[in-house]
Design a protein that fits this description.
BirA Bifunctional Protein, domain 2; 418 residues; 5-stranded mixed β-sheet; single chain; alpha+beta; 21 strands
């Protein structure tokens, strides 16, 4: 993509009411646009990142047997009444509305109940189990506070997977697969070294659940990391009894963190309430045993910016960066422009994602600043000096100094199979 055709522009300043680093950098870089508090739109650069995050999650969910669906956001009151979750005293973040005929509806906060209700049409026997069904779908939550950029929004995308098994034993086998899949996901996204499997309260569903917490000074949660196992415990359940129950001893360090994913054992709460049963081999009727597994792709994107940026801007991991390389051309003479176009065409022909800063009205300093802000993993510069030195100056976003290499070397670096 030529940067001169990109309709978004970088900004020197973020909106004064944005206090989070992720919102400031993402807005300044033209990745997102703020509609209102807790509501953001994804622009071309931001959508490229979001789609790469989604792609990684989708691959790992498919690898453990997940089947993708897409549910509606509009929810019937009757779907949620059996679990008492339509009651604002139980779930206080509903956005509720009415049809013209006065029928009450809600905008989905989650999908345990509707997906359980739907499966009544497809699960009859033990032969119909297990199932693992997931979606990427917009959720709406009427949060009281929304001051953490895209890490806490009132309208947001969520990957939610629901597992359905014959009993707890079968459920726990899938639960462990999901746990390992989540570890792979965050490692592939470049934050695995900062993300800890964290024991948390299981609430009404089970004794414990598991969160995936990424260390950041701006995190809303406090966790205690066991130095011997790298397993953490959320502050809300950090007691001697829990430590002893988990056999983790006393070697812990405290850290601030943000939750980027969670997995829950739901048991039979929803299947009992909504009458999702199956027939056993003996002909008995039993409730399906369920689990729930969530990741917010937008929250992950915001967390990456919070944890991996520096004072100049974003540092995208290669796996989710909007482009592999940011090509910059300096100098107005014909030789530079001709070589930059040649490099751009070669990169595209080799299926290397490239953002070409071909803007003629922008100074070298402004181009460098924009490149640092956008945070694309590699910066390639074609200039009078680089041509004199024999090629293209290449530098990683995390490096202080670059080096001059030939076009063929650049292609080999960015496309190893070239």
């Amino acid at each position: 993509m030529r940067q001169s055709t990109l309709f978004t522009k970088t900004r020197k300043e973020a909106p004064s009411d944005e206090v989070s680093k992720n919102a400031q950098f993402l807005i300044r870089g033209g990745f997102i646009s703020k509609e209102m508090a807790g509501v953001y739109s994804y622009l071309p650069l931001g959508l490229r990142v979001l789609n790469k995050i989604i792609s990684i999650i989708r691959e790992e969910m498919n690898a453990i047997g997940g089947q993708e669906v897409h549910f509606s956001s509009l929810q019937e009151k009757a779907t949620w009444e059996p679990t008492n979750q339509w009651d604002d005293k139980e779930v206080d973040v509903w956005f509720k509305t009415k049809l013209k005929n006065e029928t009450e509806l809600g905008l989905a906060v989650t999908h345990e109940a509707p997906i359980t209700k739907m499966l009544k049409d497809f699960i009859y026997s033990y032969r119909d189990l297990p199932q693992a069904i997931y979606q990427f779908q917009t959720k709406f939550r009427n949060e009281l506070r929304a001051k953490s950029g895209i890490m806490r929004m009132r309208e947001f995308l969520m990957k939610d997977l629901y597992s359905f098994n014959v009993d707890e034993r079968a459920h726990l086998m899938f639960y462990e697969k999901a746990k390992e899949a989540y570890i792979k996901i965050f490692k592939r996204m470049g934050i695995g070294h900062l993300t800890y499997l964290t024991v948390a309260s299981g609430g009404m569903f089970s004794k414990f659940s598991h969160e995936f917490q990424t260390i950041t000074s701006t995190g809303e949660d406090t966790i205690y990391i066991n130095e011997d196992t790298n397993i953490a415990i959320n502050k809300e359940v950090f007691t001697d009894e829990v430590k002893n129950n988990l056999g983790l001893g006393d070697n812990f360090r405290e850290a601030k963190a943000v939750e980027v994913g969670n997995i829950f054992t739901l048991g039979t709460r929803f299947s009992d309430a909504l009458n999702l049963k199956y027939k056993t081999e003996n002909g008995d009727s039993k409730s399906v045993f369920m689990g729930s597994y969530g990741i917010g792709p937008g929250r992950v994107m915001g967390t990456v910016v919070e944890t991996l940026s520096d004072d100049k801007g974003i540092i995208w991991p290669e796996s989710i960066a909007p482009f592999q390389v940011h090509l910059l051309a300096f100098g107005g003479d014909e030789a530079v422009l001709k070589e930059a176009d040649k490099v751009y065409d070669s990169l595209q022909k080799n299926n290397i994602e490239v953002l070409f800063d071909d803007r003629s009205e922008i100074s070298a300093g402004e181009k460098f600043s924009d490149a640092d802000l956008l945070g694309i993993p590699y910066r390639a510069v074609v200039s009078t000096r680089s041509l004199k030195d024999g090629g293209i100056e290449i530098k990683k976003r995390t490096e202080e100094k670059g080096k001059v290499i030939s076009l063929d070397e650049l292609l080999k670096l960015l496309a190893p199979n070239h």
